[in-house]
Amino acid sequence: MFDLLEIGLLVTMFLWGSLVGSYAITVQTRVKAHEKIRGVPSHCMHCGKVLTLRGNDLWPIFTYLIRRGNCKYCGINIGSSTLVYEVSGGLVILIICLLLRAWGVLEVSCFALLILGMAVERTFLRI
């Protein structure tokens, strides 16, 4: 059985994984469009409107579902690959954490995954 701390940690790790998935689809989309990956704020690829956390535009999975897969500003369909990447990222990290829980090292390993993810992201952004 899961205790409250483990449930909270697993939910947090799923959300972190969905952020990784969201970042992956952003990088893929920008590379295909020959855009910079670093130094350019998140924006709609169609209308160019800058997306913000304050405007509830950048919450993986939730924003897609609330907006029904469409841009808040121009209404164009974003495409289901965004949702697939975000959910897949969350599930991959969740499965890894469940395996780590089975081995009895969930808390320490999840912390290490967070640190590793931040290090990889920082390294990638310097390229």
Q: TL;DR?
A:
With 127 residues, the chain is mainly alpha-helical. It is 61% helix and 0% strand. The chain is built from 4 helices and no strands.
Please explain how this structure is put together:
The mean pLDDT is 81. By secondary structure, the protein is mainly alpha-helical. It is 61% helix and 0% strand. The protein has one domain. The termini are far apart. The longest helix has 29 residues. The chain contains 4 helices and no strands. Helix 1 runs antiparallel to helix 3.
Low-confidence stretches: none
Number of helices: 4
Strand content: under 5%
SSE series: HHHH
According to DSSP, the number of beta strands is 0
Over the alpha carbons, how many angstroms does the gyration radius reach?
Answer: 16 Å
**Measured distance between first and last alpha carbons:** 43 Å
Number of domains: 1
Helix content: 55-70%
Q: How confident is the prediction overall: mean pLDDT?
A: 81
What is the overall shape?
elongated
Largest sheet: none
Would you tell me the structural class of the helices and strands? mainly alpha
